[in-house]
Write a structure and sequence with these properties.
alpha/beta; 20% strand; Spore Coat Polysaccharide Biosynthesis Protein SpsA, Chain A
Length: 273
């Protein structure tokens, strides 16, 4: 295998199943999926066991007990369980286009990370998408999406283009910074280990950006592919978004930027470097 796909999930088995079907039709085949499960109940395990014999890629289910929002902890466990030297990170609510992994693999570059894009779907459309809609890829047809409830937005919906020249042009001119996006980003495993993975003090709100800021401090440069590597984000509630945790995370990020930190003492290895 050449790629390990890592993403988190928590008690949303229907969304997870749609994502796993999305990976079943990737044009790039040499990969594994590592599901970082932040304490879901048995329904999620049942979905995973049911789909395993129906897809042509291996699945690892990395689980720990539910003890609040511990996304960074379970991501670090999944990183250590991964079996390849290149890691693609996404989310358990993001359906990848069929060329998603091929794009990440072909654009990978030493001492860089890739920053991909997404299109956010409304709840009605998220519920409406079926397995067949995913397998025949109609969900990445702009007309079909708009007909079924996606808001018209020329520049955002331009991410759906399959014209590589248009996509590359937009990648180059977009004013959006190529930050580390938890829903769509990739880099080398040795690089992730070199900065000690994700900071486990962080809860919801900016934990992915802090990770990316340490990558940049380490000398890893970002590459913008937000119009080339595309996934659809299924809607969901965010009951775990707390003002206190968001402020705590902001303080950690501020420290990372000001001190140009590379290593976190609260990551995969818990001792000081």
């Amino acid at each position: 295998m050449k790629i390990s796909v890592i993403f988190t999930t928590y008690n949303h088995p229907l969304w997870l199943e749609k994502v796993l079907w999305g990976f079943s039709i990737q044009t790039f085949k040499d990969f594994e999926v590592v599901i970082a499960d932040d304490g879901s109940d048995e329904k999620t395990a049942e979905i995973i066991e049911n789909i395993k014999p129906k897809v042509d890629y291996p699945i690892q289910h990395i689980w720990h007990e539910d003890d609040g929002f511990r996304k960074c902890d379970i991501l670090n466990k999944a990183i250590m369980a991964s079996k390849t030297d290149y890691l693609v990170f996404t989310d358990g609510d993001c359906i990848p286009r069929s060329d998603f992994l091929a794009t990440h693999f072909n654009r990978r570059k030493p001492n860089h990370f890739l920053s991909g894009g997404l299109i956010r779907l409304p709840m009605d459309l998220s519920n409406k998408i079926s397995k067949n809609d995913i397998l025949d890829q109609k969900i990445f047809n702009k007309s079909w999406l708009i007909k079924n409830g996606l808001k018209k937005d020329f520049f955002k919906n331009l991410k759906l283009t399959k014209n590589s020249s248009v996509a590359n042009f937009m990648n180059n001119i977009t004013p959006t910074n190529p930050s580390w996006n938890g829903h769509n980003a990739s880099t080398w495993k040795e690089t992730v280990l070199a900065i000690n993975g994700f900071d486990e003090r962080m809860q919801y709100g900016g934990q992915d950006r802090e990770f990316g800021e340490r990558l940049v401090n380490f000398g890893i440069k970002p590459i913008q592919i937000r119009y080339s590597a595309i996934c659809l984000h299924l809607d969901h509630s965010r009951g775990y978004a707390k003002k206190e945790s968001i402020q705590k995370n902001r303080n950690i990020r501020k420290e990372t930027r000001q001190e140009k930190k590379v290593w976190t003492a609260h990551g995969i290895k818990k001792e000081e470097k």
